[in-house]
Inverse folding.
């Protein structure tokens, strides 16, 4: 009879512990969701400025020079390290 009581107490303690963890995690999810909505409603992110139509979209010459240097470095690396 002693073993049966220990088993019942162990199972009830397990159910109590798992129930506590479940309730805690559920409350954590609810509170986090509510905080996210609160922050989103009262402190919205500033809107990004709209792109100007007809603006020049060409890249500066520095980007072209960097692209040429990177391309040359990749070709040199591949030429030296062939499999």
């Amino acid at each position: 009879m002693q073993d049966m009581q220990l088993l019942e107490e162990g199972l009830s303690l397990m159910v109590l512990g798992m129930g506590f963890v479940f309730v805690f995690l559920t409350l954590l999810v609810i509170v986090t969701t509510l905080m996210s909505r609160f922050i989103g409603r009262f402190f919205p992110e500033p809107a990004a400025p709209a792109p100007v139509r007809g603006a020049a979209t060409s890249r500066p010459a520095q980007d072209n020079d960097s692209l040429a240097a990177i391309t040359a470095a990749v070709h040199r690396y591949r030429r030296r390290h062939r499999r």
In short: The chain has a mean pLDDT of 87.
